[in-house]
Design a protein that fits this description.
The protein is mainly α. Helices cover about 75% and strands about 0% of the residues. Helix 2 runs antiparallel to helix 4, helix 4 packs antiparallel against helix 5 and helix 4 runs parallel beside helix 6. The chain has one domain.
């Protein structure tokens, strides 16, 4: 019975997700997947596991990075700082990330600016949100 009450209490707690931190983490995970996974997990195909060049996995990582990034950056823009710079940097980085999927020969050259742009956008957004902390302009409607 005590466990049920504890479980119910946990559901009533307010959990706050730092979307910029999650965006940086997923971008970092993508960079690790693309750069280090081939070096570390070269023996995975022996066991029938292929995540090194799995196009479906790469697409899902790109979609996840895009979904978290857009939500995080839009929230920061709308609710906090009204600065388009993080969104512009994110879109530029994301374009490199998508191009990486199609130009396999230049994959590593496109990955570096892509992930750097996405991480930089999240860091700029995070810092801008902390600095402004709901400091709204006169044209805000919230």
């Amino acid at each position: 019975m005590l466990q049920l009450l504890t479980f119910a209490y946990l559901f009533k707690m307010n959990f706050k997700i730092n979307w910029d931190a999650l965006g940086v983490a997923t971008s970092f995970a993508c960079a690790l997947h693309c750069a280090l996974l081939p070096l570390v997990f070269t023996s995975l195909p022996v066991f029938g596991i292929n995540v090194i060049e799995n196009f479906g996995f790469e697409i899902s990582m790109v979609i996840l990075a895009f979904a978290i990034g857009i939500y995080s950056l839009y929230h920061g823009y709308k609710k906090h700082h009204h600065n388009l710079l993080p969104i512009v940097i994110f879109i530029a980085g994301f374009i490199f990330l998508v191009l990486k999927l199609f130009f396999i020969d230049y994959e590593n050259w496109l990955l570096i600016p892509g992930v750097t742009g996405i991480i930089a956008a999240h860091l700029i957004n995070y810092r801008s949100c902390k600095i402004h902390n709901h400091a709204h302009a006169d044209d805000c409607d919230h």
